[in-house]
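Quick one, probably user error.
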């Protein structure tokens, strides 16, 4: 799923009023027999493939792990109500990014726009005339004048294009599960902290070679209707609590619909999986284990794609001696 930081970065640039609601189709039903076979093979090697709410225990240590989505949706009301007692009675709530982190990041980006800008080139210089024309249309559809985006880092443009034109700004800005959990914790006086420095994701993108960033950007140039369907597929897999499936399907759809070569799209997806999921999951484990050593009850809420798989947070905690139990969401 989109992280809260990436949603925030989109908001910094996209300035159009609220747009039409997205109404895409769940593409999981369109998989070919070959894709179905690949999916089953991927899921066979994915422990903890399902579930949005887990409890990890070790001796007298208790950690609740909640897989989140970073977009507002009325279907989040019931799960939040069911988990409210756990959140309100926690000694600490850990999040990918707190409100204070978001404010500090906004201040830094205001004072140092070079974090998102190329100092030595423009996108029209780096792209063919045809690709820049397509990029311009895609940016305008999302409320971004192309001349304003001409010096953006290519990775940042790929973030902007990941949000379909149909997505309304309030859906990105307010009411995602992360924001709701943080608001509930704040109201109950529960301390909050971040799992990582906010610049971790910046580095994951910005450290990529420019050629890779350009491929990332070009791979995002899908038809708006397909973009809407990809968005709908991710949301559907979240509410089905089927995260390993959702991630595996996303990888296959990236190859299916990307304007660049399928092998290049697969390489990009694998790189982002390593940088945005696997590496961060490993870095979070010492933070989580330290938190439960210092507190009786800890709640950690982060993007649901971090939960499943042999490199997921749940499997890594199990390797640390924790017992995992799936709870109602």
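Nope, works fine. Designed sequence:
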């Amino acid at each position: 799923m989109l992280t809260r930081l990436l949603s925030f970065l989109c908001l910094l640039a996209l300035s159009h009023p609220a747009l039409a609601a997205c109404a895409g189709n769940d593409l999981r039903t369109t998989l070919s027999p070959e894709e179905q076979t690949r999916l089953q093979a991927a899921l066979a090697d994915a422990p903890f493939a399902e579930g949005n709410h887990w409890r990890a225990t070790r001796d007298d240590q208790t950690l609740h792990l909640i897989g989140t989505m970073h977009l507002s949706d009325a279907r989040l009301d019931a799960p939040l109500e069911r988990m409210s007692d756990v959140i309100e009675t926690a000694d600490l709530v850990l999040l990918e990014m707190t409100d204070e982190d978001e404010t500090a990041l906004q201040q830094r980006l205001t004072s140092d726009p070079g974090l998102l800008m190329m100092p030595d080139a423009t996108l029209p210089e780096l792209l063919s005339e045809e690709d820049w024309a397509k990029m311009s249309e895609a940016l305008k559809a999302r409320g971004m004048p192309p001349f304003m985006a001409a010096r953006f880092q290519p990775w940042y443009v790929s973030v902007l294009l990941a949000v379909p034109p149909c997505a309304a700004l309030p859906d990105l800005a307010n009411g995602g599960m992360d924001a709701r959990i943080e608001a509930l914790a704040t109201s109950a006086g529960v301390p909050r902290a971040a799992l990582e420095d906010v610049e971790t994701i910046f580095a994951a993108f910005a450290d990529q070679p420019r050629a890779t960033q350009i491929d990332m950007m070009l791979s995002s140039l899908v038809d708006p209707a397909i973009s809407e369907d990809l968005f709908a597929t991710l949301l559907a897999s979240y509410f089905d609590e089927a995260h390993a499936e959702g991630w595996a399907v996303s990888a296959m759809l990236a190859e299916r619909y990307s304007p660049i070569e399928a092998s290049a799209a697969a390489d990009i997806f694998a790189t982002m999986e390593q940088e945005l999921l696997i590496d961060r999951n490993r870095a979070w484990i010492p933070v989580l284990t330290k938190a439960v050593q210092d507190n009786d009850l800890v709640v950690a809420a982060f993007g649901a794609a971090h939960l499943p798989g042999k490199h997921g947070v749940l499997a890594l905690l199990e390797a640390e001696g924790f017992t995992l139990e799936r709870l109602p969401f």
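The CA atoms of residues 255 and 318 lie 32 Å apart.
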